[in-house]
Automatic annotation (TrEMBL):
Gene Ontology MF annotations: structural constituent of cuticle
Pfam name, any one: Chitin_bind_4
Higher taxonomy: Eukaryota, Metazoa, Ecdysozoa, Arthropoda, Hexapoda
Annotated InterPro entries: CHIT_BIND_RR_consensus, Insect_cuticle, Insect_Cuticle_Struc_Prot
Annotated protein name in UniProt: Larval cuticle protein A2B
Entry keyword Cell membrane: no
Length: 182
């Protein structure tokens, strides 16, 4: 409530002292006319190749009126270079074509020269005697085992604990700046 009275008091002082301040001449409005280019044109580009971090990216863009054309490229984490060619105009909108190229060029395999085949003579064919197969003797399976019923377990119930308190658990929390232990 006191804040409202302070604001009201400050407003009254401002109104009372307003007549004391001399009135300055009105400032002339300075209008700056911005030039409008009906056919804007620009070209820019940049290239980053950092040998320490391995970062490599480029971009080139050209504008001629309402048509913008450009290309940018960057190295992806999977070992490929992504190259995007794009155009934008009022009729077709924004269109991009994305290509991917491996960063490491494929190594061409050395041509394989066929060595002359060694001369091998076939071993003479000898008829082997037919193997003798005998049947295994039949053995009677033993009778299944019968299990006797186990005697009923004896259960002893202990009296419940009434005065048991909460379990004490030791916990620790840690961060780079603060550490707690309970």
């Amino acid at each position: 409530m006191a804040f409202k009275f302070t604001i009201l008091f400050a407003a009254c002082i401002a109104v009372a002292s307003a007549g004391v301040v001399p009135v300055a001449a009105p400032l002339a409005a300075v209008a700056q006319v911005e030039e409008y280019d009906p056919h804007p044109q620009y070209t820019y580009g940049y290239d980053v190749k950092d040998a320490i971090s391995g970062d490599s990216k480029t971009q080139v863009e050209t504008r001629d009126g309402n048509i913008v054309q450009g290309q940018y490229s960057l190295n992806d984490a999977d070992g490929y270079r992504r190259i995007v060619d794009y155009t934008a105009d009022p009729i077709n909108g924004f269109n991009a074509v994305v290509r991917r190229e491996p960063l490491v060029a494929a190594v061409a395999a050395a041509p394989v020269v066929a060595a002359p085949a060694p001369v091998v003579r076939a071993a003479p064919v000898v008829a082997a005697p037919a193997p003798v197969v005998r049947a295994a003797p039949v053995v009677a399976a033993p009778a299944p085992l019968a299990y006797a019923a186990a005697p009923a377990p004896i259960v002893k119930a202990a009296a419940p604990l009434i005065a048991a308190g909460p379990a004490i658990v030791k916990t620790q929390y840690a961060s780079p700046l603060i550490s707690y232990a309970y």
